[in-house]
Each structure stands twice: as C-alpha cells, then as structure tokens.
Amino acid sequence: MLRRFLPSVLSTQYENLEVVLADNASSDDSVEVVTAQFPSVKVLRLQKNWGYAGGYNAALAQVTADYFVLLNSDVEVSEDWIRPVVELMESDFKIAACQPKVLSFHRPSHFEYAGAAGGFIDRFGYPFARGRVLDVMEEDIGQYNNTVPIFWATGAALFVRSSVFHEVGGFDGDFFAHQEEIDLCWRMQIAGYRVFCCPQSVVYHVGGGTLPAGAQKLYLNFRNSIRMLRKNLHPHDRFKVLSARLVFDISFLFKRLLLFKWREAKAVARALYEGFFLYKGASTPRRKKLNDLEGVVHTILPIDYYLKGKKTFSDIVRRK
Q1: Helix (H, G, I), strand (E, B) or coil at 21
Q2: pTM score, whole prediction
Q3: How many CB atoms lie under 10 A from the CB of residue 293?
Q4: What is the pLDDT of residues 80-95, one digit of tens each?
Q5: 284 CB-contact burial (10 Å; exposed 0-12 / middle 13-18 / buried 19+)
Q6: Which distant-in-sequence residues (6+ apart) come within 8 Å of 94 by Cβ?
Q7: What is the rounded distance in angstroms from the CA atom of residue 269 to the CA atom of residue 285?
Q8: 196-241 pLDDT, tens per residue?
Q9: CA–CA separation, 297 and 182 (whole Å)
C-alpha cells in the first residue's frame, strides 16, 4: 500500500504540506521501506497498535499544523486535492471537518463505501452517504458535485481543523476502529461546528485495505455505533432511538443465525451486549437534539432499503 500510494501523496500540488507516517507498531518492514524509498516522509513510530482512533490521537499529539489530513494508506489522491478543501474551510471557521469525494480505486466510475460524497445518518443513527446506501454504490455522474453540509466525514481522507480536534478531545480511543469519525463529527456539531463535503477534491480508496470484512469488523461497527448513540444522544431522543436500534439490531442478529453465519452472529451478539449493558463511558456535555443537527435524514434506513426498495441516496431523501 505504501509503495503504491505514497507517491501520489508526495506529488500533491500544495506548498505548505508535511507528510507524516504514523506507524501503529507494524510488524513488517513498512518503516524501513518508507525511510529508504521516501526520505522526505517523517515517521512517528508508536509502541503499540492503538487502532485508528488511539493511533491518530497519539500521532497528532506530536504534530503541529493548522489542519490535519488523516489519510488511509490505501488511498490514491489527485494532484490538487488539498487546496479546494482548505479554501472552503478557510471561508468559514465554523467548518471543523471536511471530506473530499471518495471514488473506488478499483472502479473509478463509482463511489466508494467509506464516505462516498458525504456521510449522513437516519433518525435511529444508521449511517449512509451520498452515493452509498448500505452495500449499494452508485455510479458517479456528477449528481453529488455540490458542496453541502453533512453529518459525518469519512475517516479515509478526513480534513480536520486542529484546534477543534483538540478542543473536543480528539477521537474516542475506546472505539479502536470504525465509527470513530462519526462520533468525532457528532461531537464537533454539538460544540457548535459544522462538517462539509467538498466534491471538487477527489480521492480513490481501495477500501478494506487494513481490516477486511468479517466478524471483527461487524463487532466493531455494531459495538461502536451503540456506544456513540449512548454518548451523544440528547435525553429527548435517547429512549426512542435506543429502543428502536435494539429491535433492528436483534433482527439482524437473527438473520445471521438463520443463514448459519455463526461467527458473524456471535460477533453481533457480543457487540450488543457490550454496547447496551457493559458500556460505562461518559456522556458528551451539552448534547443537542437530532432535529438541531445537520445531516440527519428523518427516515428509517432499514425500512427504506429492505421493504421499500430504495437503494440510492436520492431515492431516500426525495420528498414524497
């Protein structure tokens, strides 16, 4: 991944740029390869694999910059991908996080799963994106080329204002990986900031390059989603949303059992138990109602997708 994609990052047309590799205690020769082949890259070696969330927290504590761009190792960037985003964020200091348009590296005509053209959530906290609804990826025909406020920005190529990142406490390290960027963006909105997608910037993401699909990914997604809801929901929304999520998530668990996917079922059951019954994390101060946040679509994603056959973002948000 580093040999393939670092050259595109180093070819970025942006003058005030420092490229830093945060090495999460890798056991291969990643550091040696980067040191030998890409000597301009600064390497931060962490002594333990803290995951996406903890790893970035540890690395960014050692970096001084106005903006952080958190870029996965499986992303190819275009030459002028930084400037449009920074110009947008400079135009409004309430914009704390932003993402480019994310297309598939293997199928560049289509959006990629991790963020597509900007992340949203439904009324029960299920995430989806412009260009990606559950496992359906739309073709990019320019339908989402407008710059818009969103609920969450992808962690695969995440621009964040460093001052706000530190103000809200960075990522929740207990998440390890998955949904931590949604939690971060939610807390930024609660603190009075905004999140945007800037489609004038384009990157190409392999997807699943560091943690492929499987039981572990299911476990982290379900567990962290529940933790995020419990942390950030306003008391006005809390009972309704958590009750509905428990019903929907248990339905998903039973579907895994009926399909004899035992490892996945076990992973989801473990996630639900830890998320609903074991989680003791502190709630985010000054929580806001979902109606007061940008990027919340007041629909029920599982019903739209499975029962109504709505497979695209445009279908879901179109007024009836």
Answers
A1: strand
A2: 0.94
A3: 18
A4: 999 999 999 999 999 9
A5: buried
A6: 192, 193, 194
A7: 29
A8: 999 999 999 998 655 566 889 899 999 999 999 999 999 999 999 9
A9: 15
